[in-house]
Structure of Probable quinone oxidoreductase:
Amino acid sequence: MVKAIRVHELGGPEALKWEDVEVGEPKEGEIRVKNKAIGLNFIDVYFRKGVYEAPSVPFIPGVEAVGVVTALGPGVTGREVGDLVAHAGRGMGAYVEEQILPANNVVPVPPSIDPIVAASCLAKGMTAQFLLHRCFKVEPGHTVLIHAAAGGVGSLLCQWANALGATVIGTVSTQEKAVQAKEDGCHHVIIYKEDDFVIRVNEITSGKGVEVVYDSVGKDTFEGSLACLKARGYMVSFGQSSERPDPVPLSALAAKSLFLTRPTLRHYATTREELLETAGEVFAKVASGLLRVRVNHTYALSQAAQAHAALENRRTSGSVVLIPDNVDQ
């Protein structure tokens, strides 16, 4: 038996229960991994609340973790007991001390990267990679608007977009987060509680608007985000921390011939080759220092409810990582 967080009934952070679970042995093509660090992502909140539907209930949340391989199932090649591996965005079940995973779903973690750093940045980094390079290709001279610029994905988006030569506008909720966003490459930071971000974007761009908006907030920012776009601009809605946006009539896009997409990581890492390439690029950017990973908060796995509450109430910045209680810190 190992310890895990499970959800029996959808709801608030109190729905996260600390329980004993059976793990079993790996079957054909599987490996067993002892987790060392688990990434907390907003998608975990969506599943806990029922915004996204889990395959079954009860379930173990979590889409990202780093750990050590402890056993190999029949037919597994290319992996060895003792390997440090990571997985992200290919199914739930990470909020657990040990888990069984398909061997093809994990990627090797370079020895230069600490497990906590890897767990904090793989899902978020791969998200930033496909958003900036494949969902909409950011190029020098573009102006981009990034909401939640001090969040886990937002921080990486700002740094990476800046490195690509874009002018970066970020929105945040507090002065403290504004300082971080500036450090992460934002040329202009808007504290949305003090200023109307639509008016400020219009001022910053001299009325031209931005090429692309990366919006993980949802309902509270969606209409304003559309208003910030220039003609033929791209609205990339990749999250809904403030609940689902209201329905959008096609006429709202026709006014400026806008593009609208709602992408998810799993559709941009569908093959083993895509997974290895995307994860490899993220780890390379982190190792080179181009991406600075901010692990601003760590919690014991048994304290996942407190971590969820802090994330939902916007009391966090950067990344949040859960550490299994049986791991020495």
Summary: Residues 140-262 form a domain with the Rossmann fold fold (CATH 3.40.50.720). The chain has nine helices and 15 strands. The two ends are 22 Å apart (CA to CA).
